[in-house]
Amino acid sequence: MSAGTPRRRVAVLISGRGSNMTSLLAATKDPAFPAEISLVLSNRPEAPGLATAREHGVNTVAIDHKQHMSREDFERAMQEVLEAHRVELICLAGFMRILTPWFVERWTGRMINIHPALLPLYKGLHTHERALADGVKLHGASVHFVVPGMDEGPIIAQAAVSVLDGDTPDTLGQRVLAQEHVIYPLALGLLASGRIAIEGARVRVSGEAAQTTALVAPQLA
Ligand code: GAR
């Protein structure tokens, strides 16, 4: 980013511990990163990630969805707060509320999500359990644009990990999470610096290096 270029103002939406939020916060500490976290917003006032964000000196807002009559009512309250903070981009980071088309359409092309699976496999919950039950050898994480369908939308970045012999949902989930923390800042950086073009279902990244090595599992000792 050239000196003087304004950084894009980002809101991170969380519902829980916020480890992905923390990885985004760490990336934005670099003044050369093209985005800054202007707000962390949670639908759960008790979300541990809110305290972490405050420790980093970031503005936090809790909007308890249980205090709102309808989904849209809750989302209108979020939209007001986002506008008040002049938010340009949204990162969903473990935000466990389904968003209505009303909200999603307001943020088309400007809202991204991280999901703990190699989409379009394993949309929804319990992704690590389901990957193990299916016996896949590669599993992973995806960052994608948010569209009205749950865990759908053009994919910006993915990371794959090998599924190991003794894996439990927990051990597999930990290796996936470590990769989430790599690809989320990568994807936000690409979006915020304008290096992404959506072409139908595909996302084209300008300046991408051709990578021809395959990831093969299992690897022999
Ligand atoms: C992450 O693994 C994220 O991919 C997942 O929730 C976890 C939140 O952890 N998101 C979803 O399952 C959304 N479909 P974090 O609060 O430590 O970032």
Describe the protein's topology.
Blueprint: E1 8-14, H1 19-28, E2 35-42, H2 48-55, E3 60-62, H3 71-84, E4 89-92, H4 101-106, E5 111-115, H5 127-134, E6 138-145, E7 155-162, H6 169-192, E8 196-199, E9 202-205
Parallel strand pairs: 1-2, 1-4, 2-3, 4-5
Antiparallel strand pairs: 5-6, 6-7, 8-9
Helix pairs in contact: 1-6
Glycinamide ribonucleotide is lined by residues 14, 16-20, 49, 93-94, 114-116, 151, 177, 180.
Structure description:
The mean pLDDT is 96. With 221 residues, the protein is of the alpha/beta class. The chain has two domains: 1-107, Formyl transferase, N-terminal domain (Rossmann fold, 3-Layer(aba) Sandwich); 114-221, 3-Layer(aba) Sandwich (Rossmann fold), CATH 3.40.50.170. Helix 1 (19-28) runs parallel beside helix 6. The chain is built from six helices and nine strands. The strands form two sheets. The chain has a seven-stranded mixed β-sheet with strand order 3-2-1-4-5-6-7, sandwiched between helices. It has a two-stranded antiparallel sheet with strand order 8-9. The protein has helices at 19-28, 48-55, 71-84, 101-106, 127-134, 169-192; strands spanning 8-14, 35-42, 60-62, 89-92, 111-115, 138-145, 155-162, 196-199, 202-205. The relative contact order is 0.14. The structure holds glycinamide ribonucleotide.
- Share of β-strand residues: 15-25%
Radius of gyration over all CA atoms, rounded:
18 Å
The CATH topology of the largest domain turns out to be Rossmann fold
Total domain count = 2
**CATH architecture title of the largest domain:** 3-Layer(aba) Sandwich
Extract low-pLDDT stretches.
none
Shape: globular
DSSP helical segment count:
6
Assembly type of the chains comes to: single chain
